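Section 5: illustrative case.
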């Protein structure tokens, strides 16, 4: 008998059109294995997720750049097809911000955590996060928000080059412009030129002091805050390899106890009154020995399945249990467990894992997505190589977007990542269709 209330379906919403988003597949499998009917509102064209046997139905997502009203129409349409209340789980920042704003409107059809609608947007906004950390006394890189090109150049000198440049609302950065959500700036002129593209990026530019990477410095914390304010279903992890190299997504991560990171996560969510799933990124400052919060993502992190405890609890199951008023089991942590994204770290996927390992794509009870991923990834790599060699453009129905978040890290293995770090993330303009 399932611990979850299988009478209540789940709806996964993802606005970002990335076919290689393995976190969505992780959520599909986690809930589907528990017997929950899983609906996915996302772009399914060219995505391995649609081939999972645990997907009940794929639904067309909102169009790129959709308004709140259009997103609400999409979700109401899905709710009408399901015809009973469902747990709604945003899988990217754009979705989390939209659902937060629409909470009152969606509440009759969807089960959602009880928290202020503006809170997800506040923590996802990089400029707002700096203020949040200051008020909660959470270490955060020194952040300046210039109001002119001259101020941007001055701020770069003031912080000390190199500096990190971020767009405060990265989910608004349009595809196909060459703009990156985060980039390391090496001169005042670069900062000035980047500021001039603020209107194109759709949000403010901010500049942060650069914290150099190094062994054991990149950490993350995943969790779910239940209705009582307790953090459940997650834990602290260490990023061992990243893609792109340096502080991109976690290609290899390990569940590693860290009382300092856990205390910071629990204190911050308590001070904010946060409820729901969250994913935090930290970097250890080699000079001060303090962990600095870099990002607060108000949704599941792509590697959330790393933190599956001995009772099978993870953050998405914790959310479903809590919102359906079911007790959450008290499982034991499984430190040492690892998570590997095979297409970004293929050699790591083949190494022994005595403490246990979760693969992003392959699963013995759900093989089709893994097979589909390798076929799609091979085509993706060939297209990127063809572009680099001047063999012609990407086919017209594909677009590219680069998201790079820091400088090169010495943790990454050249054999695995030398070519992978040069590839960009593919997005597809086709709409999803029902399965």
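Designed sequence:
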């Amino acid at each position: 008998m399932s611990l979850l209330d299988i009478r209540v379906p789940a709806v996964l919403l993802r606005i970002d059109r990335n076919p290689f988003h393995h976190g969505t597949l992780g959520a599909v499998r986690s809930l589907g294995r528990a017997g929950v009917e899983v609906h996915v509102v996302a772009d399914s064209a060219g995505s391995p997720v649609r081939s999972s046997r645990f997907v009940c139905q794929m639904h067309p997502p909102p169009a790129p750049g959709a308004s709140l009203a259009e997103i609400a129409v999409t979700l109401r349409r899905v709710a009408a097809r399901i015809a009973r209340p469902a747990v709604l789980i945003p899988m990217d920042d754009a979705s989390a911000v939209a659902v937060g704003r629409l909470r009152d409107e969606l509440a009759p059809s969807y089960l959602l955590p009880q928290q202020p609608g503006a809170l997800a947007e506040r923590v996802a906004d990089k400029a707002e996060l700096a203020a949040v950390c200051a008020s909660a006394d959470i270490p955060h890189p020194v952040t300046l928000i210039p109001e002119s090109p001259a101020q941007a150049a001055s701020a770069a000198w003031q912080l000390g080059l190199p500096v990190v440049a971020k767009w405060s609302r990265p989910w608004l950065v349009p595809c196909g412009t060459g703009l990156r959500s985060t980039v390391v700036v090496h001169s005042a002129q670069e900062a000035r030129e980047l500021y001039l593209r603020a209107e194109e990026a759709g949000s403010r530019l901010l500049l942060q002091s650069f914290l150099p990477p190094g062994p054991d410095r990149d950490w993350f914390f995943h969790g779910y805050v239940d209705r009582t304010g307790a953090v459940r279903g997650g834990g602290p992890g260490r990023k061992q390899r990243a893609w792109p190299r340096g502080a991109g997504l976690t290609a290899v991560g390990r569940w590693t106890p860290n009382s300092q990171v856990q205390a910071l996560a629990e204190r911050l969510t308590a001070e904010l009154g946060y409820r729901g799933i969250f994913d935090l990124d930290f970097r250890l400052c080699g000079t001060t020995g303090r962990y600095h919060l870099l990002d607060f993502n108000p949704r599941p992190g792509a590697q959330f399945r790393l933190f599956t405890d001995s009772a099978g609890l993870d953050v998405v199951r914790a959310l479903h249990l809590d919102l359906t008023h079911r007790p959450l089991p008290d499982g034991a942590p499984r430190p040492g467990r690892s998570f590997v994204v095979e297409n970004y770290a293929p050699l790591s996927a083949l190494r022994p894992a005595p403490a246990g390992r979760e693969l992003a794509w392959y699963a013995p009870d759900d093989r089709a997505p893994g097979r589909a991923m390798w076929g799609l990834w091979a085509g993706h790599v060939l297209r990127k190589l063809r572009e680099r060699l001047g063999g012609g453009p990407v086919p017209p129905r594909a677009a590219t977007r680069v998201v790079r978040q820091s400088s090169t890290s010495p943790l990454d293995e050249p054999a695995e990542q030398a070519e992978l770090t040069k590839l960009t993330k593919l997005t597809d303009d086709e709409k999803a269709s029902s399965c």
